[in-house]
Amino acid sequence: MNLPRGGGEARRLYIKTYGCQMNVYDSGRLAQLLSAHGYRTTDRCDHADVIVLNTCHIREKAAEKVFSELGRMKQMKARDGGDATFVVAGCVAQAEGAELAARAPFVDIVVGPQSYQRLPELLARRDRRQAAIVATDFPAISKFDDLPANRPEAGAVSAFITVQEGCDKFCSFCVVPYTRGAEYSRPASQVIAEARSCAAAGVREITLLGQNVNCYHGEGADGREWDLGRLIAEVAEIEGIERIRYTTSYPADVNDALIAAHRDVPALMPYIHLPVQSGSDRILRAMNRRHTADAYLRLVDRLRRARPDIALSSDFIVGFPGESDADFAATLRLVEAVGFAQSFSFKYSPRPGTPASVEPQLDDALKAERLARLQTLLNDQQSAFNAACVGREMPVLFERPGRRAGQVVGRSPYLQAVHVQLDATVIGTVQQVRITASGANSLAAEPASPPPVAS
Ligand code: 5AD
Ligand code: SF4
Fold it and tell me: How far is the CA of 394 from the centre of ligand 2 (A)?
């Protein structure tokens, strides 16, 4: 139902988000934008007047999930008489806009990640008798200039802020340059205003987001370009912000200022997600990455010299076209040499329109075997990293109540989930804890010093 309900009742909006943290951020901003136009979010898809799928196109599996969800939704829509308005947003919308409208004719609006600020207008224009509206052009003006100021969710302890979007690197496997468009950095004043309003609302941790966050070069308060190191230093000055993180970084763009920020800014967490993708120089070249395996190792050394307790995570692709046993062995060697705290690894998946997708492909069984071997090694490293935390004291930012009574859950500096028996009043604060046990994905801890006895 597209018209306001009688009596000024709010229209109900259901958003399902796939993929990366930037999509999570975009969905939040979309919900806020539509709430200003009379929409209230619901977590019941079957009750919604407007259904938005905010989609991911990064790998085949991600896009497939969207299409199977679309199939389910189509049936649901048929059941409710076709009343709900159906919006496909995000990177599948951008990459496959016209095809999507043809393949899923029950979709009403297709809107790319650079155009969702137009959704109120598109919803108002939507007429069920017409074909889907497709809005996938890249606007000349940044969408951020058209969105209302961001407000964090009530009670949020940690918030994302997109500072940079898009990518000009064109790694030969990646759709991002096509779906998110050219690299763009938001002015620092916008980022700082958003971080301030988050802090005022009780947020204690900010994660600065970008596809290529460390090539940030937004206009600073002094009219000059600021890099990410400078931006981090300024965000750290905001009262109430106790922790800063950033993701995702591109190795060749890690500069001295960023390394210095890891040394000098206490609020910057000693953890960096630094995707290397492969340990073979031949494959890195074919991927159009602008670093070698050795350059990556030297960078890790420099980061560790600046901040000895820094932990690293990475992304890996196995089975890239042309990857030999020797190339894969080089990846395993790089993993052994670095020692990662956490990692994400994937089978290469040919993406339409990318240069590597037209190369001869490796056998899927070989990809699967390499992925299993790599994941065994990475999982062992993650478990070893977690186990090495046992007995240590570390600060934890508490975020929410745990599943068990009297339990709270927070994050270590290294993003591990930490469970502690503590009063819920610690939520939103950083407390020193002693790690008592470790699992594959989380830690248990006790307060480092007993709570003060009430007088
Ligand atoms: N196939 C497999 N993995 C991919 N990634 C990006 N594109 C592909 C692809 N075509 C992985 C990379 C990237 C992460 C976000 O997703 O490792 O860093
Ligand atoms: Fe994709 Fe490479 Fe850009 Fe990362 S740097 S978003 S992998 S093209």
Answer: 33
CB 426 within 8 A of CB 398: yes
Tens of pLDDT, residue by residue over 369-384, are 999 999 999 999 999 9
Contact 235, 208 (CB under 8 A): yes
| Structural domain includes residue 152 | yes
Q: Which ligand is nearest to the CA of 180?
A: 2
Pick from 75, 100, 135: which residue ends a domain? 135
Is 315 near ligand 1, meaning CB less than 6 Å away?
yes
| pTM, 2 dp | 0.93
Evaluate whether residue 27 is within a structural domain: yes
Regarding the beta carbon of 169 and ligand 2, being less than 6 Å apart is answered yes
Cβ contacts of residue 49 below 8 Å, gap of 6+? 1, 2, 11, 12, 13, 39, 83, 84, 85
Strands 442-447, 184-185: pairing kind: unpaired
pLDDT at position 63 over 80: no
Task: Give CA–CA dist 238/222, Å, rounded.
Answer: 18
Give me the domain span that covers residue 424: 393-447
Q: For the segment 283-338, what is each residue's pLDDT rounded down to a tens digit?
A: 999 999 999 999 999 999 999 999 999 999 999 999 999 999 999 999 999 999 99
Please answer whether residues 247 and 286 qualify as being in contact, where contact means their C-beta atoms are separated by less than 8 angstroms: no
Peptide bond into 248 cis (omega under 30): yes
Top mutation candidate among 23, 172, 174 for ligand 2, by most atoms within 8 Å of CB: 174
Q: Which atom of ligand 2 is nearest to the CA of 277?
A: 7
